[in-house]
Amino acid sequence: MCGIGGFVDYERDARRGGPILHGMKRTLTPRGPDAEGTYFDEDTALIHRRLIVIDPEGGKQPMYSPDRNTILIYNGELYNTPELRTELMSRGHEFVGHSDTEVLLHAYLEWKTDAFARLNGIFAFAIWEKRERRLTLCRDRLGVKPLFFAPIRNGLTFGSTIDTVLCHPEIEPALDEDGLRMLLLLGPARPPESGVFRQIKSLLPGHFAVLTPENFTDHVYWQLEAHEHEDDLPTTIERTHTLICDAARRQLVSDVPLACFLSGGLDSSILSMLAAKDYAARGETLHTWSVDYRDNDKYFTKSIFQPNSDDSYIDQMVDFLGTHHHRVVLEPEALCAALLPATDARALPGMADVDSSLLLFCAAVKRGGTTVCLSGECADELFGGYPWYHREEILFEDTFPWSRSVGLRLGLLTPDAVRNGEEFVRQHYRDTCARAPRLPSDDKKAARMREMFVLNLDWFMATLLDRKDRMSMYSGLEVRVPFCDHRIVEYAYNMPWGFKSLEGREKGIVRRAFADELPKEIVYRKKSPYPKTFHPVYTRLCADYVRRIFEDNTSVTASLFDRNAVQKLMQRPESLTEPWFGQLMRTPQIFAYIIQLDRWFRHYHVKIV
């Protein structure tokens, strides 16, 4: 993976933009610690920072077409590189290396923007055509890789991170009323097109945009479609198995050390099993990694969202697969301290210690000599893994199922912190539901399951993908998510709920598909999310930090919160009985989110306008 950035200015000579590009380089260095490249001409300045995974010499960027008119900077991995290369060679293209970057460039030269629908991978890239004075930006179908942009007076600036875009002097760290409502009432989720700051946008997944001196246009090259599911149950089981296996196999390609995250849950166990088989066929042993917290065996608290801890299941899978396993155990003090760099890594307040723990975990994995990992994200969104798919009282509730109580959030804020908060959240919710493609034959539950799919895809899964990308790339670790293969997404969207929830189980179809290849205890383990700490020291540290924030008269964050309401939570943290976001984020995570908000306002010198 890598980091990209740059700007187009049709009036001023972009070759004078060295200081801007230097700032962009600084923001992108963690994403691409191994190499750097730049390009300048009168209209544009481009920068690329590289994390070398495939073809160290042949994949250098910016990459030029043979006539040097077309220049590509690219962040991502293509998983159908061999097929594309074969077809392009049959059409007369010649290659000097074996990188996917070179294949992408030649695909564009052959098919222009029609090439994008042919790509299978995770990516965000920019293509500059000098003679045409044309910039094309593109992002993968599910938004696994980030791409932000903002208009400037005579053009556009863009980058892999919000920080990168903020390096341009015309872009201010300004937050308008919508941005403030996003942070306080929807956060850590954000609308798919939003960069939260007033001027900054996120290129939508499955979209590409074209900038010329005349105009800027946005185009869709992929979107979900509703179809009748024509496969019977045995065929659906087999097809699900085939798609997952093929996605995982494609994503094992790497010229640097690769490992798997292993929690002992169904999704990570499937990927680790498939990778271990691949490694064993080559006479190698797969490395796996897991994360835990000091004294979690002592303080773990069972809930409907987290019914059991991971330890025994991890041990069983390690014994079953024979992997070389590494455990990372985090301290509550380190977890609290890492809330600050986790905010910097995301460039936004995030999922509190769910972010900071992943940041520390990924840093440990990178120090252990691994550069690429496979992770089980996205299976729950696609195959009904979350409790809100199965609890009828939540399923048909007219709100975001992972963040149900706007009233709770408003009750923690000062009366004038935001206006029309409930209407703001409701409109985003309803707009998302309206985007779900439907069939005339859908009954009430089938139609609702399509809405839930799109709600989870566009909001909850997007938040988790943001987290995974930012926390891993902050340490120069590439994390791949095979369940996010668009073919799996398309197939799952149209699969009947009775198939998905086979035997009345979350992800029932996936369990059945791999029932003969995993231990029975793993196949039928109840879904348990990414682990969190239950240590009372962590809660105390976060509460103490919030007290210090509230004592600071210069804190913007302190001015937004009702101190008495937060103080009541400090006195009775157990009074919050349901998560305020996701599955795990309760009272300690509210304190941690306040800490991250404070860090964000201070670090970026945010102005509320």
From TrEMBL:
InterPro entries: Asn_synth_AEB, Asn_synthase, ASN_synthetase/amidase, AsnB_N, GATase_2_dom, Ntn_hydrolases_N, Rossmann-like_a/b/a_fold. PANTHER family: ASPARAGINE SYNTHETASE (PTHR43284:SF1), ASPARAGINE SYNTHETASE (GLUTAMINE-HYDROLYZING) (PTHR43284). Pathway: Amino-acid biosynthesis; L-asparagine biosynthesis; L-asparagine from L-aspartate (L-Gln route): step 1/1. The keyword Aminoacyl-tRNA synthetase does not apply. The lineage of its organism: Bacteria, Bacillati, Bacillota, Clostridia, Eubacteriales. It comes from Butyricicoccus faecihominis. This is asparagine synthase (glutamine-hydrolyzing). The keyword Nucleotide-binding applies. Pfam families: Asn_synthase, GATase_7.
